[in-house]
Amino acid sequence: MKLTGSDIIVRTLIEQGVDVVFGYPGGQVIHIYDSLYKYQSELKHVLTAHEQGASHAADGYARATGKVGVCIATSGPGATNLVTGIATAYLDSVPMVAITGNVPNSVIGTDGFQEIDITGITLPITKHNYFVSSIEDLADTIRDAFKLAASGRPGPVLIDVPKDVQTATYDYEPHAPVIPEEKQAAKELRIQQAAETINAAQKPFIYFGGGLVSGNAQAELLELAEKIDAPLGCSMMGISGVPTDHPRFLGMQGMHGHYACSTAMHHADTIIALGARFNDRVTGNRAKFAKNAKIVHIDIDGAELNKTVNSAHGLRGDMKLTLQRLLPLIEKVERPDWQAHIDELRAREAAGQDKRDGMTPTNVINKLNTYLKPNTPVATDVGQHQCWAAQYVKFQQTRRFITSGGLGTMGFGMGAAMGAQMGTGERTVLITGDGSFGMNLNELATAVANKVPLVILLLNNGVLGMVRQWQTLFFQKHYSNTMLDARQTDFVKLAEAFGADASRALTLEELDAALEKAFSCDGPYLIDCAIDKDEFVLPMLPPGGSMDDIIVKVGD
Amino acid sequence: MKRFTVAILVNNQLGVVNRVTSMFRRRQFNIHSLTVSETETMDFSRITIQSEGDDVVKQQLINQLYKLPDVSSVKELDAREAVTRELMLIKMRNSPESRGEIKSAIEAFEGKILDYTKESLTIQMVGDIQKIDNFVNLMKDYEILEICRTGVVSLERGASVIRHVTQL
Questions:
Q1: What CATH fold (topology level) applies to the domain A2-171?
Q2: In tens digits, what is the pLDDT along chain A, a chain of 556 residues?
Q3: Is A236 an annotated catalytic residue?
Q4: Which residues pair with B48 in a beta bridge?
Q5: Which residues from B are below 8 Å from A308, CB to CB?
Q6: How many CB pairs below 8 Å do chains A and B form together?
Q7: What is the total count of domains within chain B?
Q8: Residue A126's closest chain B neighbor by CA?
Q9: Is A120 touching B (CB cutoff 8 A)?
């Protein structure tokens, strides 16, 4: 059948199983929006307040569901507004397809109105991108993009479609949804060599990241941990990969990781790294990182092997398949001495825990925990609140922690939380801070318009807390531009102005009452939760430091 | 630091060189020379690069190349198992004092004079990098006006082709 390019775009999205797209109309996508109007019963479009919100929503949708998230923006500023969201997805390996309109082919290269070279701009932050200069290639390009976004190490793909391609007509035949590239286990010989090293380990430690989550290898991970009697730790991206309360799980590793976890990794003689990439927030000073440990590194992306730290064994392959091949080669052992050491570390961590009363970050998040269902997605923005969420929120199901780990995008939360909500159908929590929330709070309008059941827990300390924490510790308390006290924002009134319900919590009792209301509200509910500005995220490995430099407590 | 040569087959598509060089720039790989050319098929272009670094850098460069969807195959070409050539044009000041010595150098290096005027000599030199570097060093004793080098092209010895190399 003959269809216009814009119809082909929408029909191909439907054919690929897309149920919702996030976007914002404009001059060079007006035809796509006409097609969205035409096919609105088959494909839902969510209008965001800003294209950045649309990109984060597509990202949050993809993180929570594992499916490809889709966003649409017009040319020029619409396209550039997607850039932060695309980069966020790229750094965290999130499958996404971004579609942008552009000026007609005849105008390309002449600096036409709202013309921008978005394929050039997004070259280093996409797995790949396409400029579709002719309608013959349109449907197959979209299919290729979906395949590429979901294959191997997932990531964002951008498709730029000039306006004349949207208005041209061409034959269209529906296809079946594309199937990602076939998954492959690592090479047998490498698996055998890795198994020998693992079997020879005395103090093994398993460190997993986002690749474990996207590789759906939770069961294999836990079986491996049982077999070799090893503790588990994760990177920021690994959180919710195993239930927080799992007896072997020590929590997050790295700059703001749990003490027992970071220390156990430091003491290990063998580190088995699964779908994690030894980012500088994890290793600290690379020269001093795990000096005495042999590293077995499994990743779907061969370029991650030996990128930042040298491993004894680098295995490139699908996580689940590789672990399935590895497991039969692993001997079952018990390590009472190593476990006793881990228990000692746990006890030391417990003894150092914050036991103060009142609105401390620990108490606030623990209060929230009592309201969470096993499948509640919890999104965050970026900063202190994000680290507290990573440290204290209790997860039971995988793909439920929605956070910008690699790029660290303040302003990620509102869009991402809405995307996660729409993908899962579950009431979603956003833990944010007054700094981050200020960046994309316009998306409250979207949450209200779509009656998104969203609990916004705003940890309001009146400062840009994470930078201020560094200024306190490393810059002689020179609070350069981190004090927000001159701002007079009343977040409760602000939420109400957007049409959302809200309340303020100055005590844990008020917080409890607010959460009660928030978790039974039809739409978004904001809780302005007062936190002291001198609350720190601890422990902290100073940037470039090692485990010897860990800060556990801050004196006055 | 070791020099190495890598041959890359890429889809013959608009902007593909930009994708490859953009990755090199972003990840700070140091590229000494880069050539792009047509190949035996319309489907692929061939990029040959010369770079420098230890084995970890080399492996990382190859791994990162494989991540680009337009890259079809990548192979390091070992100097001993490949034939490698570069072409240089070099323009020298032509003066009665230097003319004789330059001409005997050209003869010894099997070069060719492509253009001869009263003021200048333009010489074509073909060979491996070492030979061309040596010739340039020799010419530094005289007045060099301009140099233009093509960068390295390289093929494996024997019948093997890189088209079907798959990632390890």
A1: Rossmann fold (3.40.50)
A2: 999 999 999 999 999 999 999 999 999 999 999 999 999 999 999 999 999 999 999 999 999 999 999 999 999 999 999 999 999 999 999 999 999 999 999 999 999 999 999 999 999 999 999 999 999 999 999 999 999 999 999 999 999 999 999 999 999 999 999 999 999 999 999 999 999 999 999 999 999 999 999 999 999 999 999 999 999 999 999 999 999 999 999 999 988 899 999 999 999 999 999 999 998 888 888 888 878 899 999 999 999 998 988 899 999 999 999 999 999 999 999 999 999 999 999 999 999 888 899 999 999 999 999 999 999 999 999 999 999 999 999 999 999 999 999 999 999 999 999 999 999 999 999 999 999 999 999 999 999 999 999 999 999 999 999 999 999 999 999 999 999 989 999 999 999 999 999 999 999 999 999 999 999 999 999 999 999 999 999 989 888 888 778 888 776 4
A3: no
A4: B7, B35
A5: none
A6: 31
A7: 2
A8: B68
A9: yes
**Chain A residue whose CA is closest to B60:** A303
Contact A123 B67 (CB under 8 A): no
Active-site residue A113, yes or no?
Answer: yes
Domain with B57, as residue range(s), is 3-77
Domain boundary among B77, B110, B142: B77
Dihedrals phi, psi of A359, to nearest 5 degrees: -85, 60
**Residues B144, B87: one domain?**
yes
Give the CATH number of domain A188-351; options: 1.10.1370.30, 3.40.1000.10, 3.40.50.1220, 2.60.120.280: 3.40.50.1220
**Token pair of A477, please?**
């308390």
The yes or no reply on domain A361-542 and CATH 3.40.50.970 is yes
Question: CB distance from B167 to chain A under 8 Å?
Answer: yes
Q: Which residue in A375, A332, A302, A361 sits closest to A537, CA to CA?
A: A361
Q: What interface predicted TM-score (ipTM) does this complex get?
A: 0.86
* Among B residues 47-86, those touching chain A with beta carbons less than 8 Å apart: 56, 59-60, 63-64, 66-70
End-to-end alpha carbon distance in chain B:
23
- State the amino acid at position A68 in one-letter form: V
A119 shares contact with chain B (CB less than 8 Å): yes
Cα–Cα distance for residue pair B57/B78, rounded to 1 Å: 16
A2 labelled catalytic: no
Q: How would you class A144 by CB atoms within 10 Å of its CB: exposed for 0-12, middle for 13-18, buried for 19 or more?
A: middle
